[in-house]
Write a structure and sequence with these properties.
350 residues; alpha/beta; 2 domains; 4 helices; ten-stranded parallel sheet; Udp-n-acetylmuramoylalanyl-d-glutamate--2,6- Diaminopimelate Ligase, Chain: A, domain 1; UDP N-Acetylglucosamine Acyltransferase, domain 1; twelve-stranded mixed sheet; flat
Length: 350
């Protein structure tokens, strides 16, 4: 596919500086571009590459100041990052058209309902009374156990497993190896051993959710573990049984949320954040990487970090003090030594 700078600018609602007829047929990073490529500049840390890039077109934020000659045609937009996502989505749709039909090696139980325009790939299994919606894409080796549901337009990449009775909404993306509905971690000590507590609930994944590779959302003991609309979970995220993850919350890699915890809307968790069980986290809470949330976060909109996590500004001050602890400790010992010497001298004078 080939497009002119003018066509792209019209699509993005941007303004052109340079040759409106410049043509592009590929995407690239601004620091490693080639002729015929379109690049994006939305972080001023990369601004220096604008003057050396070989890209034919660069989409950049409208407030960036150009202080020297540039070779590519520039398209100025309000938010170049958003525009990059928009163009990449169009490209992906064009290059990866939805498939239809059931592969000959797939196993689809007679009671399952698979929409005519859905796709079921090689060696996939669609169990008893499973429902697969319009346009859903079920890739190779996916397992959908009894009474599971997959909504229209959803994509389940290879080796995804959806356990029995779990529900996946519309336009959901589950990446390779993702497991929805494995048993929650429930055991009770008895007679010198652990007795398993049956997990008879399910998982409900609402619409427009994306869950990364090898992430796990456990089924509830009773009721439902819920991942609400718009949530984005990175690779290797663990959501335990009976949790409720609020709309549009995002979690980076290796976040772990213990059981029966309720996370609010529009929260942002950095990598390796750990959240204790049976607590609540308020809306729009931002958690720095490796934060340990041990108790309720009641005030919305806080930024917290550390373990146990607390206000980020206070944490920064504490960190600064911590780095100086060896010197502080040496100073304290010196003061104690001087004080002891003064006391000793005072006693001798008496």
């Amino acid at each position: 596919m080939e497009f002119t700078a003018k066509q792209i600018a019209d699509l993005l609602g941007g303004s052109i500086e340079g040759n409106a007829d410049a043509k592009v047929c590929s995407f690239s990073k601004i620091e490693g571009s080639a002729p015929g490529a379109i690049a994006f500049l939305y972080d001023d840390h990369y601004l220096q590459h604008l003057y050396t890039t070989a890209a034919s077109v660069v989409v950049l934020n409208s407030d960036f100041k150009v202080e020297g000659p540039v070779a590519p045609t520039l398209i100025r937009v309000e938010n170049a990052r958003v525009c990059a996502a928009q163009l990449l989505a169009i490209y992906e749709q064009a290059m990866n058209q939805p498939r239809k039909g059931v592969h000959p090696t797939a196993v689809v139980e007679s009671s399952a309902q698979v929409a005519d325009d859905a796709y079921v790939g090689p060696h996939a299994y669609v169990g008893e009374s499973v429902k697969v919606g319009n346009g859903a894409q079920i890739y190779a080796n996916v397992v959908l156990e009894a009474r599971a549901e997959v909504g229209e337009g959803s994509t389940l990449y290879p080796n995804v497993t959806v356990y029995h009775d779990c529900k996946v909404g519309k336009r959901v993306i589950l990446h390779a190896g993702c497991v929805i509905g494995a048993d929650g971690f429930g055991f009770v000590p008895k007679d010198g051993a652990y007795e398993k507590i049956p997990q008879i609930g399910n998982v409900v994944i609402q619409d427009d959710v994306e869950i990364g590779a090898n992430a796990c959302v456990d089924r509830s003991m009773m009721g439902s573990t819920i991942v609400r609309s718009g949530v984005k979970l990175d690779n290797l995220v663990q959501i335990a049984h009976n949790c409720d993850i609020g709309q549009n919350t995002v979690m980076s890699a290796q976040v772990g949320v213990a059981g029966s915890t309720k996370v609010g809307e529009w929260c942002m968790f950095g990598g390796q954040v750990g959240v204790a069980g049976h607590i609540q986290v308020a809306d729009r809470t931002q958690c720095g990487a490796q934060a340990g949330i041990a108790g309720n976060v009641r005030k919305p909109g806080q930024t917290i970090i550390g373990s146990p996590a607390f206000d980020a500004r206070s944490f920064a001050r504490c960190s600064a003090a911590f780095k100086n602890l060896p010197q502080i400790w040496a100073d304290v010992n010196e003061l104690k030594k001087n004080a002891n010497t003064s006391e000793a001298n005072g006693s001798e004078e008496k």
